[in-house]
Amino acid sequence: MSFRVFAVFNFKDEVEPSLQLIGAAERAVFRRPKIMQPTQDILAEEVPVALVYNGISHVVMMATPKDLEAFAIGFSLSEGIIEHPREIFGMDVVPACNGMEVRIELSSRRFMGLKERRRALAGRTGCGVCGVEQLNDIGKPIQPLPFSQTFDLAYLDHALRHLNDVQPVGRETGCTHAAAWVMPSGELVGGHEDVGRHVALDKLLGHRAQEGSRWQLGAALVSSRASYEMVQKSAMCGVEILFAVSAATTLAVEVAERCNLTLVGFCKPGRATIYTHPQRLIGE
């Protein structure tokens, strides 16, 4: 599998080198009380990112233009387009139409499956749950997760204290979500950020898949709330434990219960709300 990145978004040339960040840009703003006096501020970038499989555009997402290869792999896995990164034969990231285009070469078997899915969606009006016949069809069939590990909550506190470390753009702008992998030791690895919480998680899932067995044990940690889509994406990629800094929704809890995922919300040092399958957690 070969990846090529032809361009990335970055600051304008006039920004001081010490402030340069991929995924951020400097803009003039006006602040109270001197609302007529411009000053410079740093903003997170948000651009359309098209995922193009074997020459066919499948979806356009608004995202921060960094770590797009990991995003494409994670999205492909969490949406059931592929089952393993090796089913992607090549990938190019190129600028296109005021945004970015990720051109993905799929195996012929996976591309045929994707075309069948696209035909099933053809002609239906768009909505948040497009492509389903009835509400009972929401969600993807997910193999129940195994109970193959435990996690000591004492190590979660260490990870939470360092979550901000994986958000360089977020620290400057206050505008990104983070997703990182927490090793059983509490070490944070593979941190990613994005203006979209789902995209940040997909970036993490794609990175984790590339690491293979080295990141098999541990948990996903997100700086956002846990929606059912976050739970579903995690379960599709074999993640047994999902920690969220904010709350979980009712549907997220239902999906987590059904697929054997341990879902934990309101994560703060010394605090957490465990919604489902607490048997994977030890300590206090």
Q: Which terms would index this structure?
A:
284 residues; alpha/beta; Cytidine Deaminase, domain 2; six-stranded mixed β-sheet; five-stranded mixed β-sheet; 7 helices; 15 strands; 30% strand; globular; Sulfur carrier protein FdhD; sulfur carrier activity; molybdenum cofactor biosynthesis
Placed side by side, the strands forming the largest sheet appear as 10-9-11-12-13-14
Described by strand count, sense and barrel closure, the largest sheet is: 6 strands, mixed
- CATH class of the domain at 151-282, named Alpha Beta
CATH architecture verdict of the domain at 151-282: 3-Layer(aba) Sandwich
CATH superfamily of the domain at 151-282: Cytidine Deaminase, domain 2
- DSSP summary, beta strand count: 15
Q: Label the structural class.
A: alpha/beta
Q: Please give the radius of gyration in angstroms.
A: 20 Å
Which oligomeric form is depicted? single chain
At the fold tier of CATH, the topology name of the domain at 151-282 is Cytidine Deaminase, domain 2
Strand content: 25-35%
Shape: globular
Write a structural description.
The chain has 284 residues and is α/β, with parallel strands linked by helices. It has a domain at 151-282: 3-Layer(aba) Sandwich (Cytidine Deaminase, domain 2), CATH 3.40.140.10. The chain has helices at 68-78, 108-121, 153-161, 168-173, 197-211, 228-236, 250-258, and strands spanning 2-5, 24-30, 38-44, 47-53, 56-63, 88-96, 99-106, 151-152, 177-182, 188-194, 219-222, 241-244, 262-268, 271-274, 281-282. The protein has a 6-stranded mixed sheet with strand order 10-9-11-12-13-14, sandwiched between helices. Strands 1-6-7-4-5 form a 5-stranded mixed sheet. Strands 2-3 form a two-stranded antiparallel sheet. Strand 13 and strand 14 (271-274) form a beta hairpin. Helix 1 (68-78) packs across helix 5, helix 5 (197-211) packs parallel to helix 6 (228-236) and helix 6 (228-236) runs parallel beside helix 7. The longest helix is centred in the C-terminal third of the chain and has 15 residues, at 197-211. The radius of gyration is 20 Å and the shape is globular. The termini are far apart.
